[in-house]
């Protein structure tokens, strides 16, 4: 009888326990008036750096809800019904944690395609939402979680703009408002460029130079004149295979180095820190903006040789896909593409998924009754780090309707159609992984599968690509991107009329996503030599070879 009474008492206490929940208020000094955006609560076991700066698929536990015109002073609740990763709030182990709330603030955009949507809009600067200008966050709090009850958090701070570095004799920064993108979004949209000038640029005032468009981030090739902020001077990074930014500066400024200009772009969209330099139903005409507005303006301002042979493209990962896309779509405009570790360039190998034949992006059937999870990332020894399902769940916490700002949903925004609600239509169901064949077909038919695009247009495209395609990939790419490059190589090797002369360099053994075939100094020398060989008759390279 006593045992039964104790059991009933225990059951009653469990039934009465309240699940853990967060109540979040937004201070008036952080935001006035109704607030629309995405509220994310981050829960970490460590307090430094701030949880918002630890965010990754293997970082803090995260919980997210939409805020839709939240009235000033109203409490926002994050509870067991919130989107979560890597576990639900109810499954969070009891313990002491560091907790922080962040709000990705949305604005209303009335696009020229007739859709009105709510997204985060900025001035084109590449930045993730946890550090983006105008977004909100609170202080880090150390709290006990997992035993139920309510935790109250306050959002009190507005993230300021990151100051742009001042121009120097070597590096110039340019912001160009795109008329085409401004018309699409109904508000001013800018593309920024960072221009690295050669030694003697000011003294040789009549010289025009070849240009390498490096479709990456920051100052091209990591160039810096500040040796105090650089580690391992004089050493090649064993993982990336490139030199330090200061060592590159010493090569760039040497008497015997090729004199070229290098340019990188910033083209942040509401869906990702990069617009991929192509026209997109969801993002707008970034391809037209780059080709028709940005590059001509840069060539006018900085004495670039405004001819195809002198325009060279280089990019890795996202930039690798852009590099190939720009060369294929503009074969008469650019003189060469150096494609490094590109995002999937054959959608039969969207990492480990064939989006045309497979039915599910999360699981790989291995037998009549068995399957295994499709990995999204691995180590260079082949150990899976996280799965496609993991990443989809992670992105679903960061934002609904394709607004996570992360990789899978970035591809959908760039390559895919607009959904009926005005937001990107998903390629697969976020809960089940079931692939939407209509979306896959749209991506192929609109030319975002670059292998299929090149194959479809090879009769006219092939002759214009002679001597222009150069590929490099690590054979243990962290994101399985080498698989699509294999397929692209197979296609090019099988071409006739004309036969492709593209070259492929494979980095092995155990070389991953960040590996390179050359140091940056070696690469610039290689590109300069290629430009000289490809110069039409009558073009004199001696002027920029001082």
UniProtKB/TrEMBL annotation:
InterPro entries: AB_hydrolase_fold (IPR029058), Esterase-like (IPR000801), Mycobacterial_A85_antigen (IPR050583). It holds the Pfam family Esterase. Keywords: Signal. Residues 1-17 form the signal peptide. The keyword Signal applies. This is Esterase. The lineage of its organism: Bacteria, Pseudomonadati, Gemmatimonadota, Gemmatimonadia, Gemmatimonadales.
